User: Fold this.
Amino acid sequence: MKKSLLALASGTLGLGIAEFVMMGILPNVARDLSISIPEAGHFISAYAIGVCVGAPLTVFVARTRPLKQILLGLAAIYVIGNLCAALAPEYWTLLLMRFVSGLPHGAFFGVGSIVAERVADKGKTSQAVALMIAGMTIANLFGVPLGTLLSNLFSWRFPFLFNGCWGMLVFFLVWKWIPVLPALPDVGWKGQFRFLRKLAPWLIILTTMFGNGGVFCWFSYVTPQMLHEAGFQPESLTWIMMLAGLGMTIGNLVGGRCGDLYGLAPVIQFTQVFMMLALLGTFLFAGVPWLSVLLMFICAAALFAVSPPQQLLLLQNSRRSEMMGAACVQIAFNLGNAVGAYAGGLPIDAGLGYRYPALVGVFVVALGWVCVTWYIRRERRHFINEPIRL
Assistant:
């Protein structure tokens, strides 16, 4: 792996930990701050909203800056947000710091995708982008379980402290290994959004938002579900989260490969059917421990199997607006996270138990499936499945 791609992957690894670690430490945070589990779920939503705000804000403020400078600025915000989260004394401060921590997320993926394309060897652009995204799947395989373990052994503040220190390393690697690249041609603020005049990008965005949001209806509350429905002990959560991370890693690799073989949109459509079936199975068999873990693995794999196809598909539909187009997948992904965490908490607030978020997720994913099916039928004659050239 080129050092520049390793620097980008280290950044997405840290962002992956920052985004997903809250799922594993949710009960500890709720208990320490004397709030309910659904209220603690707002920290997931706050991060996701920060992602949605941060990407367009970066385009507005820094679109004319050299790409390396933008990445360094985003890494600095990441460090500040996580270190302050580790010191947060109460609910509102932590909520604000989770929002700040989310600001660089989508923009880093957007700018990082462009940098990966520019440093990639000829004909290996898709592989370079996949290597960058791989950092997030590795975060779920090792980083999130480590955060869960640190939270259980010491305090929920330790994962955020670790994130802040990791962010310092990311800043150094970006400074050391990312080459100086010129800024993108300035097409103006409005020019960055010109691609959204067409229906196709909106269908991809909605597919991503609803498909991923449906999984997050359940995944936001996977820890209490495993504890209270499946009957696992708290010490089992570390290896359970590692299995989820392994599913995401395998799903990312399989999804990228299948996207090359069978087409990007069809892979998304087929995978979302698996999402719905796995979520329905989770609702029906939440009390069966081994089956709950197996279905969790399938859901996690499906969540990231659609990630490379969605990223590339939207890039193909955002020519000349690369920075915003590349970030839109992460905006949609995290907007889905926010909606999913909120919607999944509704049946819990109503006293229906921790298996019901998965049932809500089935209907949310179904909306995403409708959108990608619409896209396929509408774009069949113009469907593009070639290596992307920005």
Notes: The two ends are 21 Å apart (CA to CA).
